Amino acid sequence: MGRYIARRIAQFIPVFLGVTLILFFITTVLPGDPVAVRAGTKPLSPAVYKSLRHAYGLDKPWYVQYVDYLGSLSPVRYSPKSGLRFPGPDLGVSISYGRPVIAMFEETFPYTAELAFAAIAVEIVIGIGVGIVAAVKQFSIWDTFATLSTSILVALPVFWLGVMLQYLFGILLQQWTGGIFYLPIAGASGPPFADWQYLILPAVTLASVSTAYAARIMRSQLLEVGGQDYVRTAQAKGLSPSAVLWGHEMKNALIPVVTFIGLDLGAMLSGAILTETVFNWPGIGNMIYQAIGRRDYPVIFGGVSLILFIVLVVNLLVDISYAFLDPRIRLGSKVEG
Amino acid sequence: MSTPRFRSVIVLAAVMVLAVGVLGAVGCMPKAATTSSSSSTPVKGGTLSYYIGEPAAIDPYNAQETEGVQVVHQLFRSLTDFDDYDATKLVPAAASTWTVNADATVWTFHLNPADKFSDGNTVTAQDFIYAWNRIANPNTVNTATKKADPSQISYHLAFVRGTDDYGNAPKGISGLKALDANTLQVTLKAPFAEFDYVVAHPGLAPVEKSLVEGGVDYNGSKVAFGEMPVGNGPFKMSQPWKHNQYIKVVASDTYYGAKPYLAGVNFMEYKDPDTAYLAFQSGALDFSQIGTGKIKDAESKYGDSADGYTSNPGKQVLLGAENSVYYLLINNKISVLNNLKFREALSLAINRQAICDTIFQGSRQPADNIVPPGIAGYQPGAWQYAKYDVAAAEKALADAGYPGGKGAPQITLAYNADGGHQPIMELVQADLTKIGLKVKLNPFADFPTYLKALTAKNFMVGRLGWVADYPIIDDFMNPLFRTTSSNNYFVFPNKTFDAEIDAARKMTDPTQRLAAYQALDKQIGDQVPVIPLMFYKHHHVVSSRVHNFIFSSMYLADLSKCWISK
Lengths: 337, 566
Fold this sequence. Notes:
The complex is a heterodimer.
Chain A: H1 2-29, H2 34-39, H3 46-55, H4 62-73, E1 77-79, E2 83-85, H5 101-136, H6 141-155, H7 158-176, H8 197-226, H9 229-236, H10 241-269, H11 273-278, H12 284-294, H13 297-325
Antiparallel strand pairs in A: 1-2
Helix pairs in contact in A: 1-13, 5-6, 5-8, 5-10, 6-8, 7-8, 8-10, 9-10, 10-13, 12-13
Chain B: H1 4-26, E1 47-52, H2 66-75, E2 80-82, E3 90-92, E4 95-100, E5 106-111, H3 125-136, E6 176-180, E7 183-187, H4 195-198, H5 209-214, E8 216-218, E9 221-223, E10 235-237, E11 246-251, E12 264-269, H6 273-281, E13 287-289, H7 295-302, E14 310-311, E15 317-318, E16 321-330, H8 340-349, H9 352-358, E17 364-366, H10 390-399, E18 411-416, H11 422-434, E19 439-444, H12 447-455, E20 461-467, H13 474-481, H14 495-506, H15 510-526, E21 530-537, E22 540-542, E23 546-547, E24 549-551, E25 557-558, E26 563-564
Parallel strand pairs in B: 1-12, 18-19
Antiparallel strand pairs in B: 2-3, 4-5, 5-7, 6-7, 8-9, 10-11, 11-12, 13-22, 14-24, 15-22, 16-20, 16-21, 17-21, 23-26, 24-25
Helix pairs in contact in B: 8-10, 13-14, 14-15
């Protein structure tokens, strides 16, 4: 297991280099100049233009910029004067805002993580829960209800669902209750609400489609596993239905669900542009999206590095979890003839 | 006896009721609903929630877009200020009086001795000289990141002696002199009788060198000046800028003018105006842009403001014209577009009213001039071809040598696809097709790509907007039509216009000067170098608890004069 994890971590490096190199090349050949964009249609002084291009290294060839970028990711710095230092990754300064990219991520990433984990919690509790109930009570009214509601949820555009929830819980509920009960519909903090209340609507919206998928995968997996020999053996041994379900069926059936939820967590930690926009949630998704429109390279590449890192780690964790769920999977061990 | 299925239904219903209950319970008790007082006596106190997008900067030296300028205008006061009710007029601000010499080249500003920064220090002429040099220096370093971060608004200073065409002066502006602590003398390169409008720009406000370079004290630690600027305006920051969330300001007790009635203002940052409007409806905002397609609905719910710029309870929808124009650019280097009659035909063929009505539902108005109505000297219909007249368009097209469009090359309409311009361009395309032209849309992926194409003159007909920095005709004539202007993407060289702009700038007699600019405006309009399409309008709404809220045609809110009913 230890060797497997070490090997997987070693694989991060070529993946990281490959993805960033391709992205760097594509992005820097995109038309549009971050300094010109900053000025918009107002006159842009050639001296200021030169000064800014130089300050951000935009006057260098793209491969030199790439090497500089890799250097900025390194947590270690060395100079003959001050020797070896460990200041952590730098990521540079945003061209649009003139602020350190690290500081911008420190402000926004906690909100992205908070929203992602809240949404995943909804997905796990409701998605898996509904899936189990639907499978155990196959063809019951519960099953019909689950199938129907998941179909509807999958079909609803996130944007539309978000606005509807805002209208229902922020405005109509307020009117119906004479202003006593309602939910905040935008932002992340501030009176008269507690901070966690701001999470409710965006988390439900962000989780909606995935929860529906998780429920459907859970249901179909349980039904499939239920017909397998080892489950029948367990039943024949005289185990109670719940012992069969939790001790035998679930472990196996969970693998695809865990894979799905894990990938989804990686995606959510990369920011949720639509949900963040509709609910004015101060996460990284919208920030990186805006940066692309402004060609703010340090923010784009800083964001991509962060996302890549998260996705690689989450994928690794998902793969490791298989070994615990299914005893037949032995990570990293040689296949014996 | 109930069947299992029936029991399931009951349980299901119970779960749903419970879910609604839980969702209700997590809501909370907001403050008691306020009823608007009918009294017109100002009340002190209260905090206003103001919708804003994330500014690029709230440090005056880079106050360049509407959001940043709005906040800077609350925190700082420049030498002069635009009158709240009539932005074409100036009122004293940091300077209580000012004089100009006979040929409009030397301006002397006498500072108000009562003018103080919110840290208690008196504003001096040196603070202006430091602030302006900081803007003019192309190598200005950001004190927080130690990286070059020069100002992009140096063009405001291009009038001053010792700066280049873009207002840059790496070694300091020689045209600035502090005659004494309270007197600032500005010498210009060339006469400009409206320089007092330029110095009203919020970006040209005074700043303290010690704070810019040493940081601002906040709770015992230093904060970068750009995160918590200290100014001489009616409000001061109560905590550092919380990026992507809010900027909180409170009334400043050192302000030289009448103290604000409000205790403070929270500038709440929104990414999407439609979300902001929903938040306004839920009571979270006092001021917001009206959501897409909701203007009529807002007018019926909240009532129209009497003048389009001032809001009071029951008259809360602001639809006043702004000092900005949306126009089509014409690449005059292309031979068919170098034909005046052809340009006339294009301009006359477009139904501007239909665009305003169908796409913007009245949040814009048809442009009949490049100069908008909020500018002193605006003449309705001065651009004779900026109107909808299909018969005249067809005649002009025939006169241009292309009767019914026969023989005319295909026209392409360039625009950036990311800014909601496509529907406008589609209507323009339909209108031009009606007079017999072949027209193709030419979208560019986003604004950076599009800007590059414009700079490379890689377009036939394009689109742009222009927002005036100062409410004077000069701010349309000079930046758009001077031969050397960077905004003259449409390649319209006409040296006689350059000379006429310079001549008007010298005139110190306001009546004579205005007449000269008006004549120039008309003359340029006759040449159809661009096609004005629409004037922008406010499409904003204010909550019913706010009185005397002023949002001027310069897109500046004066929050020191409004109050919130208890």
